[in-house]
Amino acid sequence: MFNKIKLWRKTQKPSTLRDRIEQVKKAQIPDHVAIIMDGNGRWAKKRALPRIAGHHEGMKVVRKITKLANELGIKTLTLYAFSTENWKRPKNEVDYLMKLPEEFLGSFLPELIEENVQVQMMGYKAELPLHTLNAIEKAIADTKENNGLVLNFALNYGSRAEILDAVKCVLNDCKSGIINENALDEKTFSSYLMTSEMADPDLLIRTSGEIRLSNFMLWQLAYTEFWFTDVLWPDFCAEHLIDAIEVFQGRQRRFGGV
Ligand code: V0D
């Protein structure tokens, strides 16, 4: 019996990345995957490199994971790139981070257009340096007709502030009679959030061993499956995303079976 199980595992478990990609594509792919890309600083520290080296390496991973997400047929990939709390970091680090969108888009935008990816951003734009905002706005404009993967960067984003702003907006619209207090339900409230055009995430991934949400999409993650890994974001690769999706699919199967 035990041998049989071992034999089954040997013959059934696909080994190469190609095989595993084809295998997960046969089952339900999460429509919306959100990722908290944590561990860039720790990755650099382990190598006695400056923190910015970790951020740069992390940016390369964004490129790889975007390509894979698109290939898998994920509809929306939300990446937490910068929180409203991140302004407290040393100035040189913040300055460097704010150059990453330009660098990323400078080399990757033609490829994103080629692959039919639509770039979006959620977060507070007003505080961003103009050079950062301009690069992002251009990418959004240049890809707005694309109907493949939506690559949604959470940048200067914080969930409590998002919810508070939505509440204030709802109160305003109640006062001016645009909406009726009694008709306010979850669906209507959702339309006041930065994710108004988006489905809620089906799968949340957080790297680097931290098991918390850190003010990320608190409303939207109400029913989301969570997958945590100790892998640092710069070490995150295709295999890890496939691992997460396999776990997601296993949970969906069990959920559907009951
Ligand atoms: C650093 C790991 C891509 C997390 C990934 C400004 C922290 C690399 C972008 C990016 C960052 C943002 C918008 C856009 C295109 C690319 C990015 C930041 C940090 C914060 F339209 N990587 N990336 N933005 N890191």
Classify the helix fraction into a percent range: 40-55%
Q: Name the ligand types.
A: ligand V0D
* Derived structural class: alpha/beta
Query: How would you describe the shape?
Result: globular
Please name the CATH architecture.
Answer: 3-Layer(aba) Sandwich
What is the CATH topology?
Answer: Undecaprenyl pyrophosphate synthetase
For the largest beta-sheet, the strand count, sense and barrel status come to: 6 strands, parallel
- Share of residues in strands: 5-15%
Computed over alpha carbons, the radius of gyration is 20 Å
Strands of the biggest beta sheet: in what spatial order? 3-4-2-1-5-6
Mean pLDDT: 94
**Distance separating the two termini:** 27 Å
CATH superfamily: Decaprenyl diphosphate synthase-like
> Any low-confidence stretches, pLDDT <50, length ≥5?
none
Any overview of this molecule?
The structure is a single chain. The chain is α/β, with parallel strands linked by helices and 258 residues long. The chain has one domain (2-7, 31-141, 159-249): Undecaprenyl pyrophosphate synthetase. It has ten helices and six strands. The protein has a six-stranded parallel beta sheet with strand order 3-4-2-1-5-6, sandwiched between helices. Helix 2 (17-25) packs parallel to helix 10 (238-257), helix 3 (40-46) crosses helix 4 (51-72) and helix 6 (100-114) runs parallel beside helix 7. The chain is globular and about 60 Å long. The protein starts with a helix and ends with a helix. Ligand V0D binds at residues 37, 40, 55, 58-59, 62, 81-82, 97-98, 100-101, 104-105, 119, 121, 136, 139, 153, 155, 233.
